[in-house]
Amino acid sequence: MRSARVPLALALAGAFVFLALMRVTAAGEPDFTGVWSTYVDPTAPAGRGARGGGPPPPFTDDAKKKVAAYRAMVTPTGDTPGGYCLGAGMPGSMLGSGGYPMEIHQRPEQIIIVYEAHNEVRRVYLGNRIVPEADRIPGRNGHSSGRWEGETLVVETTHLVEQVDQQYAHSNQAKIVERYRLTTAPNGVKVLVNEMTLTDPVFYTQPVKVEKKWQQVPNGHLLPYECAEEGWHKRLEELEKKHAKPGA
Amino acid sequence: MRKAVLVVLAALFGGLVGVPASAHHSAIQFDFTKSVPIKGVVIKFEAINPHMRMILRITDAKGTRDIEVEGHSTNNMYRAGYRDKMIQVGDTVTVYVAPLKDGSDGGYVTAALTAKGTRFGMVSRAIQEAERERERAEGGARQ
């Protein structure tokens, strides 16, 4: 009996090591679990790898007016949503989240993405966990439903609110489809590639396609990010001054 | 490796770290093309987000006074070398700030030299580009 258990245990251990090395789940899908930071091309000139660019978004006329009005309002003051401890929302969260890393926890029925900046969270539901449409409340990150197409995770995000405060501003009719796959950079770094398509007939004359790459941070850790702490401390200092006894 | 980390952080700072850099107020008031050293004694220090905060007692031509500076998020400073207790009340430190455009006391801390001689922080994109421009000019002059 004992002799039969040893090969079985060795086989199980071998399978576990194989799955871990290949970064696949027990079901055979790629495993995105881990900490990821914005991919930096090691061959790009220093200090120039992370900045975006490209042609202007194909806004509709109404969207152009809304975005122009917003930018005219905030550009002189430099105000941003982050300035009020507000998370980026989609697609800004997945396109960089202010340059901070993100952490992915993957289970068969749910994938949780935690962005370090503002502790912003996205939940991608799969299979029976997908939230019925009638039960969805719109938000800045919307509702995300996922499915596997081979080794590619396809995520559809709807129920977004209008956001003119993003690089890719959008209406509440926006739909974002992301296709995630793993690859390896020439220097051996694991890279998570996200090909995103934003469709929004209210804000855009045609679908917008963006590619975002994240690189794995081996044994990485997210740090806490209590954005409101500074504001609270300043308020406490105001109260302390107000209540300080003269001469004390 | 350390240089690579700083370059990456500098790239992020220049292009993507708009969220923390402007949190709670605009960063538009600071001149990020400059890096000015300020040496002083730490009266108060808070390693918090979105901005580190510090009160320094400094002495210069205007006399001795306490000034308040702020800086990058603790998270960004951590990835640029900051660790817990590196700066403590009573320490004499040098902070490198993007000064306020109006010339008043204060600034935005991008790097620091601790009492034990440890440096942490990053270099802004504008300063990196100015440095590259200077190196190019010097290279051209030598040819």
Q: Largest sheet of chain B, described in full?
A: 5 strands, mixed, barrel
Q: What is the averaged pLDDT score of chain A? A: 88
Please indicate the count of domains of chain B.
1
- In CATH terms, what is the architecture of chain A? Beta Barrel
Q: For this structure, what is the CATH class of chain B?
A: Mainly Beta
| Count of runs of 4 or more consecutive helical residues of chain B | 4
CA-CA gap between termini of chain B: 31 Å
- Unreliable stretches covering 5 or more consecutive residues of chain A: 47-52
> SSE order of chain A, as H and E?
HEHEEEEEEEEH
In which range does the helix fraction of chain B lie?
Answer: 25-40%
Task: Give me the secondary-structure topology.
The complex is a heterodimer of chains A (248) and B (143).
Chain A: H1 2-22, E1 34-38, H2 61-74, E2 102-106, E3 110-115, E4 120-126, E5 143-149, E6 152-158, E7 175-184, E8 190-199, E9 208-216, H3 229-243
Parallel strand pairs in A: 4-5
Antiparallel strand pairs in A: 1-2, 1-9, 2-3, 3-4, 5-6, 6-7, 7-8, 8-9
Chain B: H1 2-15, H2 18-21, E1 36-46, E2 53-60, E3 63-71, H3 74-79, E4 92-99, E5 107-113, E6 119-121, H4 125-142
Parallel strand pairs in B: 3-5
Antiparallel strand pairs in B: 1-2, 1-4, 2-3, 4-5, 5-6
Task: Summarize the structure in words.
The complex is a heterodimer of chains A (248) and B (143). Chain A has 248 residues and is an alpha+beta fold. Chain A has a single domain, classed as Lipocalin. Chain A is 20% helix and 27% strand. Chain A has three helices and nine strands. Chain A has a nine-stranded mixed β-barrel. In chain A, a hairpin with a 3-residue loop joins strand 2 and strand 3. Chain A starts with a helix and ends in a 5-residue tail after the last helix. Chain B is of the alpha+beta class and 143 residues long. Chain B has a single domain, classed as Nucleic acid-binding proteins (OB fold (Dihydrolipoamide Acetyltransferase, E2P)), CATH 2.40.50.140. Helix content of chain B is 29%, strand content 32%. In chain B, strands 1-2-3-5-4 form a five-stranded mixed β-barrel. The longest helix of chain B has 18 residues. The N and C termini of chain B lie far apart (31 Å). The N terminus of chain B is likely disordered. The interface between A and B is large, with 37 and 34 residues.
